[in-house]
Each structure stands twice: as structure tokens, then as C-alpha cells.
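User: Can you help me understand a structure? I only have the sequence.
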Amino acid sequence: MQNSKLSSYGIALAIVGIVLFSAKAVLVKLAYKFEISSEHLLLFRMLFSLPIYIVLALYKKPVEKNKIRRIDYLWILFFGFVGYYLASYFDFLGLQYIKAGLERIILFIYPTLVIIISRIFLKNIITRQQLLAILLTYIGVIVTFWGELQIETTHIILGGALVFLSALTYAIYLVGSGWLIPKFGVVTFTSYAMIVSSLCIIIQYLVFDRQNIVNYPLEVYFICIVMAIFSTIIPSYLVSAAIAKLGASNFSIIASLGPVSTILLAYFLLGENLSIIQIIGAAIVILGIYVISKKK
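Assistant: Let's start by predicting it. Here is the structure, written out as C-alpha cells:
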């Protein structure tokens, strides 16, 4: 009974965290109305988040400090750089060459990559339940974005490769976080990883950009503060807690709900159209999540 409760609690954490992360796309669309660049939007998001991560990192110490080796801190540097910075950067570059529908279909092969990486490096067993859930959720994602899928021959290989690298780096982060969270604890690991990612984004701005960032309308800064709190800080801790409860493989399958929740939020908050095909795709994704969630 206790394991069942823990599993249900982990699933709830995962779903809430994924939905809050997905709300970022809606906030980004609102911010784009004020002609802000993607780089500056990402910079503001992390600048407003960084103080909270620093405070929590100083307040919350690792749960198993005696078992942590120096190399574990180097792993956090690596996973912070790879997971929340490099994955986003590859995705951003890939979107310059391919349409969003194709990008999402390529990007959401990462649950498969998580399970393969876990099998190779952590010797985790792949269950039939996981394979069925991956198949269903991926079919659901394809159905959901089929109407947006426009194949372009120009640079499609380059764009597809960049988005695949985004999926791969995020999968590596999920596997690594599942391994390190038990040592550091949910709050400490997340704070450290997000500080690393934030610093990477700030360094990128200082090296390659340096444009004025104080002349945007007040609405832009308000949107970015909301994004920092509700679509960055809170979901980052919820996702880490869900990974600690469910494991990286099962979480990655449930995370397929992300693109579906983005469409639903855009429908309710931005008034965008919602087609029957998208509803069917969403239902298939939810069915896949049910398969991985149910007890044998």
C-alpha cells in the first residue's frame, strides 16, 4: 500500500511539474508581442530565478554529505550545463531550420533515449509496460502535431540533428539526475544544477550579446517574473522530486504530457484553435501515461 501511495504521489508531482513547465510556452508567446528576442527572454527567466536557487542552495545542505565525492560535484556541473542549458540551446538552434511540429516529434523521442541510456550504463531492466507506454505516448505526440508537420528539404538534416542532440542531452540529464538526487536531495541537486545553467546563460549573454536589456516595457519584466516563479523555480523542484519517486525512465514517459498540455493551455489562455486530431492525440498520450502508471 505504501509503495502504491508513493507512486501516486510521484505521478502527481510529475504531472503538475510538467504542466507548469508547459505554461512557459504560453508566457513566451505573450512576451513575444513586445518584440523581445528569445535570448533575452531566456536571460530574464534565469536572472529572476537565480536568487531563489542561490538562497535555497545555501539553506539546504546535501542529505548524504558523507557519501558525496568530489567527482559528484563535477557531475552536477556537467548535468547542469548539459540538461538545462545545452539541451535548450540545441533546440533553439534546430528550430531555425525545421518547423515546430517536426521539432516536437523529434524531441519527444527522449523517453526512449532515457531507457536505452539507463539500460546501457545503469543496467536497468526495460519492462514491456515501459515499451508499450513509450509506443503509445509517441504515437500520441505524432498524431497531435501531424497537422503542423511540414517537411522542408533545405537544412532539414541539420535542423533534425540539432533537435536530436537536444533530446539526447536532456535524456542524459534525466538519467544523471536520477542517479545524483538520492545523494544530494531534491532541493540541493535542483538548486545546484539550475545555478550552473543560469550562469551558462549569463556568460553567453556577456560574451556574445551585451545588448541593452533595460528598455523593454514593464509588462515584459512582469511576464518574465511570472515565468521564473511558476514555469521555472516551482516545476524544477517538482520534476526532481518526481524523478526521485518514479525513476528517470518512468518520469520521461509521463513527461510526454508536456506538448499536449501546451496545446490545451494555449487553447484556454490564448484562444488558439484545438482540432479533433489534437484531442485524439492527447487522449493517446494520456493512455500511454495510464499504462505506465497502473499497477500490475
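Now, to help you interpret it: Residues 2-32 form the longest helix (31 residues). The chain has twelve helices and no strands. Let me know which part you'd like to focus on.
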